[in-house]
Amino acid sequence: MPVARSGYLKKRLLKLQVGFLLTEGPGNSREVPISLPQRIQVDSDLFLESIAGSLVLTRTKEGILIQGDLRLSHARECDRCLEAFDHAFVLSIAELFASPPDANISAFSVDSNGEIDLAPLLREEVLIEESYRSFCRDDCRGLSADTGINLNYEREAAAEAMQLEGGAAIDPRLAVLKQLLK
Ligand SMILES: [Zn+2]
């Protein structure tokens, strides 16, 4: 997998060559696995951490229909505690790429090189997904209304303190026994 020097994959990888399908004619289809396990640029202001899944491309009379589920991971801010986290979600895609381009049929089209570009479609879908509230974890406790402190950290700190206490509470003589039992 080619990695750009700046640490992410180029959006060029989101283009799929479908010229062969156009040639094969209506009714033909092909399954295309998608596996981009690294950070990839989707647009100037949008990066995804990973994309995985597979798409079925079907030649129809109007162009190429793409269908399938993609698992995406997108770094964003938790709506409760405001910490950055990787939001993972599944995108169900069913979109026609018109060929020849026809705005009345679809906003998307196969370009003159016989390629479809998934980037604009992903961008649109991700923006819709991101318009919903999302949390770093189901039990995120958010920020304290009084102090603004991240309550997740407070609980982790408390749990850690308890562990330390538990460890220190073992009688040194028992600790030797524990050692022997191993
Ligand atoms: Zn959170």
Written account of the structure:
The protein is α+β, with helices and mostly antiparallel strands and 182 residues long. It folds into two domains: 11-130, no CATH class; 151-181. 26% of the residues lie in helices and 34% in strands. It has four helices and eight strands. A four-stranded antiparallel β-sheet has the order 2-5-6-7. It is elongated and about 80 Å long. Residues 1-5 have low confidence and may be disordered. The protein binds zinc ion. Zinc ion is lined by residues 78, 80-81, 83, 135-136, 140.
SSE layout:
Blueprint (H helix, E strand, L loop, with lengths): L14 E3 L1 H6 L4 E8 L3 E4 L2 E3 L1 E10 L3 E15 L6 E15 L16 E3 H13 L20 H18 L3 H10 L1
The site of zinc ion has 7 residues, from loops.
Compose a concise summary of this entry.
This protein is an alpha+beta fold. It has helices at 19-24, 118-130, 151-168, 172-181, and strands spanning 15-17, 29-36, 40-43, 46-48, 50-59, 63-77, 84-98, 115-117. Helices cover 26% and strands 34% of the residues.
| CA-based gyration radius | 25 Å
Low-pLDDT ranges: 1-5
| Range of helix content | 25-40%
**Ligand inventory:** zinc ion
Tell me the span between the first and last alpha carbons: 45 Å
Q: Outline, from the CA principal axes? A: elongated
- Order of strands, main sheet, comes to 2-5-6-7
Question: Key terms for this structure?
Answer:
182 residues, alpha+beta, four-stranded antiparallel β-sheet, two-stranded antiparallel ribbon, elongated, disordered N terminus
